[in-house]
Structures are given as C-alpha cells and as structure tokens.
Amino acid sequence: MVVFMLIGKGGRDMNKKPYDDSNWREESLPYHTGRQEELLRNGPKSLSQSWLMQAMYNKWKKRNGYKDPEPPDCQSSLKEFFARQDSKEYSDELEDPFGGH
After folding, report:
1. What is the pLDDT of residues 13-37, one digit of tens each?
2. pLDDT tens digits, residue range 51-86?
C-alpha cells in the first residue's frame, strides 16, 4: 500500500488523522456481504471498485463518528490582492533575470 504525506503551510502534516483507520476493512466486514465483502477482502481491481471502496470507507467513518477536519480558510480580499501587487516584493518576482523587458 502506498501512502502519500501532504505537508501544508507551516509544516503541519495535513494527512494526520485523529483516529486509527489501519483496520477499517476488518471492522467493516460484518456490515457487508457478497461483492462488497469480497472487495473488502481482496481490494479493488478497477476504478469503479475503488469508488465503491471509498464509499464504504466513508460509511465506516460515519458509523464510528469520525469527521474530517474543516479545510483551512485560504480566501483573501481584493484589497489584499492589490496591496500585494503594488508591493516591492511582487515587482521583484516579475523582474526578468536575463535583463529583458
């Protein structure tokens, strides 16, 4: 299994979960039968099966009361945008390192 780590602003680990989901498949087995049970045991073999796995994972989280954290507020105002555009820092970013126009 491949795990990707997302490091966000401030060096925080954005993928860190406040719960252990390492054995969610085993915990979900009693709730599923047939193809879904087979999918939990053997894993997805196609894109559509991976969608179904994600839906089962989300149901497991909901059943156990786990919620994803709210995303950070990354919005800024138009006033902040224009202030940054007028600043020296922004104009330095736009200068051509080869001396062009």
Report:
1. 556 777 888 899 999 999 999 999 9
2. 999 999 999 999 999 888 888 888 878 888 888 777
Delimit the domains of the chain by residue range: 23-65
Q: What is the DSSP string of 7-51?
A: B-GGG-BTT--SS--TTHHHHHGGG--THHHHHHHH--SSHHHHH
Compute the distance between CA of residue 55 and CA of residue 43 in angstroms, rounded to an integer: 13
Helix (H) or strand (E) holding 64: none
| Cα(5)–Cα(63) distance, integer angstroms | 26
Q: How far is 61 from 84, CA to CA, in rounded Å?
A: 41
